[in-house]
Write a structure and sequence with these properties.
Elements lengths: L31 E4 L10 H12 L9 E6 L6 E7 L5 H18 L6 E4 L3 E6 L13 E4 L8 H20 L6 E8 L5 E8 L5 H17 L8 E4 L3 E6 L22 E2 L2 E2 L14
Antiparallel strand pairs: 1-4, 2-3, 3-5, 4-5, 6-9, 7-8, 8-10, 9-10, 11-12
Helix pairs in contact: 3-4
Organism: Artemisia annua
Protein name: Gnk2-like domain-containing protein
Pfam family, one: Stress-antifung
Length: 284
């Protein structure tokens, strides 16, 4: 059993909305989940048929780097779903995680129009709202470990925020296949902290930046200071840090092939000028 002390703090996306979304945190071995109980669907409805269709199709839509999306229907019957595996997870365990998440999510949110589930290796979300490119926040989950750092807490927090800010920039700079970053910081007492930040790759650079800054602000607002580990799960991004390495090296996204060299001929004879074209992409 994890030693993680579980505190889930949920916030409405808009504090002035008249409707109250009731969200549920998992109390079983599932790390975290949320069901929006304010909007339910009826059995055998068009929405349920569309939801069944997209969740059955979702595991087949892997972008190649752990992002999945599926949608079906129009108007009030439309359903949309996404899944995101942690950036270092290989294809097979990623697919297993997504499949298991779908099964569990249907059990714990049996008739809700919006539901999310978060495992360590992946997350799955479905909704009656279109999800691609959206940054709407219905909830925020903040969780931290009970243990405190053993050295100077204010200095640790400053170093941690620097690490998270750097990871935010790196993750947001990722391309349309993956927006993910992981790195470490080493304290003067030689203790290492491992950090990870990730957005769904359908977000723009600015959307990802804003989402991750919101995640960090939730940690700050809830006074998660001097703790040896914490995480924040939002619908389209997440962050985590621990005193142990909880991730592996992420698969490399290959660079596109460079075009072949061009040749030119002068009036005084034939010679070749090789123009080496370097195609660069950001590797997360």
């Amino acid at each position: 059993m994890s030693k993680l002390t579980r505190y889930a703090l949920f916030f409405l996306a808009c504090y002035f909305e008249s409707s109250l979304n009731i969200l549920i945190l998992a109390q079983t071995n599932i790390p975290y989940y949320a069901c929006d109980n304010f909007f339910n669907y009826t059995r055998n409805s068009s929405f349920e048929r569309n939801l069944d269709r997209i969740l059955a199709n979702l595991p087949l839509t892997n972008s190649g780097y752990g992002f999945f999306n599926s949608s079906s229907g129009q108007g009030p019957d439309a359903a949309s779903a996404i899944a995101l595996c942690r950036g270092d997870i290989e294809s097979i365990p990623c697919g297993i995680c997504v499949n298991n998440s779908i099964v569990e999510l249907r059990k714990i949110c049996p008739n809700q129009k919006d539901g999310s589930i978060f495992y360590d290796n992946c997350m799955v979300k479905y909704s009656d709202e279109y999800l691609l490119g959206s940054t709407k926040m219905k909830y925020r989950i903040v969780d931290w470990r009970a243990d405190n750092v053993t050295d100077d807490a204010p200095s640790f927090n400053r170093d941690l925020l620097n690490l998270l800010n750097n990871l935010t920039v790196e993750a947001a700079a990722g391309g349309s296949l993956r927006k993910y970053a992981a790195n470490t910081m080493t304290r003067p007492n030689s203790e290492v902290t491992y950090g990870l930040m990730q957005c769904t790759p359908d977000l723009s650079r600015q959307q990802c930046t804003n989402c991750l800054k919101d995640a960090v602000s939730q940690m700050v607002e809830n006074k998660v200071y001097g703790k040896v580990g914490a995480r924040v799960n939002l619908p389209k991004c997440n962050m985590r840090y621990e005193k142990y390495r909880f991730y592996n090296d992420a698969p490399i996204i290959p660079q596109p092939d460079s075009p072949p060299p061009e040749s030119q001929q002068s009036s005084s004879g034939t010679f070749q000028i090789y123009i080496l074209v370097h195609m660069a992409v950001v590797i997360n």
